[in-house]
Amino acid sequence: MNVHSSYGKSAKPGTFVMYLVLSVWALTTIYPMFWIINNSFKVSRDVMNNSFSLALDPVMINYETAFERMNVGKSYLNSLIMSGGTVILVLFLGGLAAYVLSRFAFRGRRLLFSILYASLLIPAFATVVPVYELLIQWSLVNTYWGLILPQTAGNLTFAILVLAGYMSTIPKELEEAAFMDGCNRWQMFVKVFLPMTRPAFASASIFVFLWSYNDLFSALIFVNKDTVRPIVSLLNEISSQYGTDFGLMATAVSLTVVPVLIVYLFISKYIEKGLTEGAIKG
């Protein structure tokens, strides 16, 4: 009893400090989001004069302007199509590549892993010119594929490494048992590896979707036409068309970020599970 009580007393200060640090960090993250949402219910003049006051008399003019003039619904649909298409392609191609890299021993395998890790260090803006030239030649600029294909290429490496690391932890005995039951390689991938790597696929899909959804840099370059503009470019569109309407800009940020936060609250457990159950191995 004395040992347990002394352990509890010694653990209390450390626990208090941990919660204190986490609380401070949470405030630095949550308060700016609250400030943005609060100011989205004010007119631009009130945002300039009293940006830190509560919107006790909220106005909806900013949201009405965003939906009526900026066609927010179409932008949401564009984001869903392009980000969803990117996720599907990344998971399909990345899953197959990860299966080969994790379960087959062949010459050059380590070199491929080294190239994949090295490619993570290449910044996206360094590839803009050649990618844009290719899209022009293929007539894909200002189309859905004009954003899906570059984002697929940009996120594929991450997905391959995460999925390959998870698949490498699957016991060889399961693979041998599936072969004895008459499974070929494709059936092995679909019936054995896909069900067992669902957490990793879920984590990869969530990260890829969020990165694709928030990719303003690529959206402004490859799909700057109104008919295919994603929601993330709404802020830039509003700032360029309506000058310094800070209430409308706060509304644009809220419309862009809040849906992602809501989705994340429901799927965060899958992210944690996928990242903790499988380790990245080379």
TrEMBL record:
Location of the ABC transmembrane type-1 domain: 76-267
UniProtKB keywords: Cell membrane, Membrane, Transmembrane, Transmembrane helix, Transport
Places the protein is found: Cell membrane
UniProt membrane topology term: Multi-pass membrane protein
Pfam families with a match to the protein in the record: BPD_transp_1 (PF00528)
Membrane-spanning intervals of the chain: 16-37, 76-99, 111-132, 144-167, 188-213, 246-267
Gene3D superfamilies for this protein: MetI-like (1.10.3720.10)
Predominant location category: membrane
PROSITE patterns, sorted: ABC_TM1
Classification via CDD domains: TM_PBP2
PANTHER family to which the protein is assigned, alphabetical: ABC TRANSPORTER PERMEASE PROTEIN MG189-RELATED-RELATED (PTHR43744), SN-GLYCEROL-3-PHOSPHATE TRANSPORT SYSTEM PERMEASE PROTEIN UGPE (PTHR43744:SF8)
Family: Belongs to the binding-protein-dependent transport system permease family.
Name this polypeptide is given: Carbohydrate ABC transporter permease
Organism encoding this protein: Paenibacillus thailandensis
